[in-house]
From TrEMBL:
Keywords: Repeat, WD repeat. Belongs to the WD repeat CDC20/Fizzy family. It comes from Paramormyrops kingsleyae. InterPro entries: Cdc20/Fizzy, WD40/YVTN_repeat-like_dom_sf, WD40_CDC20-Fz, WD40_repeat_CS, WD40_repeat_dom_sf, WD40_rpt. This is Cell division cycle 20 homolog. Residues 31-70 have a biased composition (Polar residues). GO terms for biological process: anaphase-promoting complex-dependent catabolic process; positive regulation of anaphase-promoting complex-dependent catabolic process. WD repeats lie at residues 218-259, 301-332, 435-467. Signal peptide: none annotated.
Amino acid sequence: MAQFVFENDMHSLLKLDMPITNAPMARWQRKSASANTSALSPSKSMNRSLGKSKTPNKTPGKNGKLQCTPSKVGGDRYIPSRSNKQMDVASFLLSKDNEPVDPNASTEMQKAWSVNLNGYDVEEAKILHLGGKPLNAPEGYQNNLRVLYSQVTTPVSMKKSRYISTVPDRILDAPDLRNDFYLNLLDWSSQNLLAVALHNSVYLWDASQGDITLLMKMEQEQDYICSVSWVKEGNYLAIGTSDGKVQLWDVEKQKRLRSMASHTARVCSLSWNNHILSSGSRSGHIHHHDVRVPDHHIFTLTGHSQEVCGLKWSPDGKYLASGGNDNLVYVWPGLTEGGNQGAINCFTSHQGAVKALAWCPWQPNILASGGGTSDRHIRIWNTHTGTCTNSLDTQSQISSLVFAPNYKELVSGHGFACDGLVIWKYPSMTKVAEFLGHEGRVLNLTLSPDCSTVASVAADETVRLWKCFELDPLTKKAKEKMAKSTNSIIHQGIR
């Protein structure tokens, strides 16, 4: 029994969770007891020890003078001097929410008191103030980070709120349209007239009034229209036919002015450069016609071995681009007094027929070209250096290209297997929108005079108008004002 009691006592002594009655006081207990004692009744010895270790109030400086030092422990940190008025205003703004509102005091009276006492209205006072204007990135700069704030309004082309409808604004019926990839059957004039070639007839649609006019019809039923092209002023229309002729029509009088015969095969591409009309034929030849003189054929360009299905003069009239069924793209110089020289550049990268050609309106040395079913690539060329600056595989036949200057974008028309339109951001060539409304391959594209609408004609015998480049009202008003001022200057010079 005694041994059992001894073992229980030893077991209870070895337990760590049992309080030790005769152990010395713990350090934290002694520390708390001394703190309570000093806080309640400080002793003389403690005051004496503190006084000995106290930092002196003044210490000698470098110049022999005494400088003030903090008297509290840990008070040697730097505290900047602040205006008492700012501290008072900040304290008032932080604490006034807890005070009751005086219903008798009016807002005007409180504002007057604040202005008289402080020199400004406390309600308009700010503890923090952000100043300075943010810098805008240069044009063409791309950043993956989204801009959250900019004091200056961003250009229209960079607005994320731009809405592009994938539904056509209007659909026109185009019966008997020839489903031929190599023909150019659509063009929009500067006088807002849309010319459409339907088999052996040419129709005009007034976009402002909605009227439709039959301009001409070929005499022979087996003949057909291969190409149409408006002069820059919009009062004359050139028509290329399957019998190798180029007809010139006065639209206002609805009268044929002349019929120019020089080609031996059909004329499927036309392009104007002031009074010079260039025509491309199935024979591979390009003829320059001076429409002012009886002997209109002034020069022939030879380079293509097959049909010339694409032909575009640059906006400044210095270069002529041609694309053919031989997969080649030529860049020719403008006409000179000594005659026309050979091609400046010959691009051989395409693996299919090149019908789609477009010059950049804001960069005259940039040319875009698109290949057919075997190629399906959009290529951007710098005609000054002769290099390809960008190449994009669209996975679809490319039949037409148009630059949209309002938003600096490129529109492409496609056949197999897309049968639609695609808007690309230039020069990054990222896809902006895609339109798949047509039920057949798109054959031609053209842009409206105000560059807000693109028209497409397809094998489904419809012409669809896509209003996807409309400017915002402020930018549109500024452009119209600039155009009016330019016209007034020109009229003054003529007078």
